[in-house]
């Protein structure tokens, strides 16, 4: 599809500078812009590319001041990143949707499949499972017995939903993710370990997106709960009986031990690790590789292990780098003191 700069500006609520009839039919990063493409500038580090790019149209923030004239037509908006997100959503919505049920799909007689559902080749839908209107189940995905799937969901290839789990509306789960595998529960005995049966489920509410190869374990009893609006990256581990609050986001390789409760609107960087049976308050922001051994009150930005305020953390790191030198100085002082004692 092709759009003019004016049409795009009207859609995102922006102002055109330059040729309002400039046409675009694709997207490109500003450093890779080509004629017919729309790019965006939101990070000041990339400002120099706007003077070089061949893109036909560039979205940028209204308050950006340019040092010289540029070749592309500009669309000034309040927030370029948000605006390009809206355009990408519009572009995505124009893609044709998968339809129909593949002849090689395995669907139990007792399963309930609503209208306009796509089920790909070799996908499996178990006994008593329910799949809501407009959902798409890609090849080799497995929907276990008694699973409830809402409307407008997308499960990409090799997603596995274990028995009894409940998935809300408009949930996207990327390839290889496992929902509802057993939690890590074993009781030590004289000969080894007794497995503790995990008889609970996983509940995922509306408008959640889960990245590839992420694992969310079923609860020992009750439910592991992912509340509405949560966004999880690839390769995340959520253990049994955890609860993640609304609109919380997590980057790749976050690991959460069992029975931990996380508040709403939190943001965790990559490889954050949380101990079990703790509570993290709303609007907690944890920097990458933070290790959390205990409870955290909300409305804080923290980093490190144990987490601390960024200013204190970076001061501590500066001291840490000097420890070998400080250790040598301490040894030297001890030797001097010993010599002085001998002389007295």
Note poorly predicted spans: none
Q: SS-based structural class? A: alpha/beta
Give the spatial strand order of the biggest sheet.
8-11-14-17-20-25-28-31-34-37
End-to-end C-alpha gap: 92 Å
With helices defined by DSSP (H or I, 4 residues minimum), what is the helix count? 4
**Mean pLDDT metric:** 96
Q: Tell me, what's the shape?
A: flat
User: Rounded to an integer, what's the Rg over CA atoms?
Assistant: 27 Å
Describe the main β-sheet briefly: 10 strands, parallel
- Counting DSSP E segments of at least 2 residues, the number of strands comes to 38
Approximate strand percentage: 25-35%
Residues in helix, %: 10-25%
Structure write-up:
The protein has 344 residues and is α/β, with parallel strands linked by helices. Helix content is 16%, strand content 29%. The chain is built from four helices and 38 strands. The strands form six sheets. The chain has a ten-stranded parallel sheet, with no helix packed on it. Strands 10-13-16-19-24-27-30-33-36-38 form a ten-stranded parallel sheet, with no helix packed on it. A nine-stranded parallel sheet has the order 9-12-15-18-23-26-29-32-35, with no helix packed on it. The chain is flat, with a radius of gyration of 27 Å. The termini are far apart.
Summarize the structure.
The chain is α/β, with parallel strands linked by helices and 344 residues long. 16% of the residues lie in helices and 29% in strands. The chain has a 10-stranded parallel sheet, with no helix packed on it. Strands 10-13-16-19-24-27-30-33-36-38 form a 10-stranded parallel sheet, with no helix packed on it.
């Amino acid at each position: 599809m092709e759009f003019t700069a004016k049409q795009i500006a009207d859609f995102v609520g922006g102002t055109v500078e330059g040729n309002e009839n400039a046409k675009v039919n694709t997207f490109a990063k500003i450093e890779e812009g080509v004629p017919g493409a729309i790019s965006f500038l939101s990070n000041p580090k990339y400002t120099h590319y706007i003077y070089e790019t061949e893109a036909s149209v560039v979205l940028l923030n209204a308050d950006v001041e340019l040092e010289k004239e540029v070749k592309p037509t500009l669309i000034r908006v309040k927030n370029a990143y948000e605006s390009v997100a809206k355009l990408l959503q519009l572009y995505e919505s124009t893609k044709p949707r998968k339809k129909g049920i593949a002849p090689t799909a395995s669907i139990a007689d007792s399963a309930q499949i609503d209208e306009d559902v796509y089920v790909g080749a070799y996908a499996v839908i178990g006994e008593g499972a329910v799949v809501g209107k407009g959902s798409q189940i890609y090849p080799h995905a497995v929907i276990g017995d008694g699973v409830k799937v809402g409307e407008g969901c997308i499960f990409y290839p090799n997603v596995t939903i274990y028995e009894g789990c409940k998935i809300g509306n408009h949930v996207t789960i990327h390839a290889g993710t496992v929902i509802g595998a057993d939690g890590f529960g074993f009781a030590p005995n004289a000969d080894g370990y007794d497995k503790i049966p995990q008889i609970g489920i996983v509940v995922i509410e509306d408008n959640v997106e889960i990245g590839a190869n992420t694992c969310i374990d079923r609860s020992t009893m009750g439910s592991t709960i992912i509340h509405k609006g949560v966004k999880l990256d690839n390769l995340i581990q959520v253990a049994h009986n955890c609860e993640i609050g609304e609109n919380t986001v997590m980057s790749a390789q976050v690991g959460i031990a069992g029975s931990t409760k996380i508040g709403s609107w939190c943001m965790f960087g990559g490889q954050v690790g949380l101990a079990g049976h703790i509570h993290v308050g709303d609007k907690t922001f944890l920097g990458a590789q933070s290790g959390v051994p205990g409870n955290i009150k909300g409305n804080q930005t923290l980093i490190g292990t144990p987490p601390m305020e960024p200013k204190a953390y970076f001061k501590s790191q500066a001291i840490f780098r000097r420890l070998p030198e400080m250790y040598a100085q301490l040894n030297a002082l001890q030797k001097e003191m010993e010599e002085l004692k001998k002389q007295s």
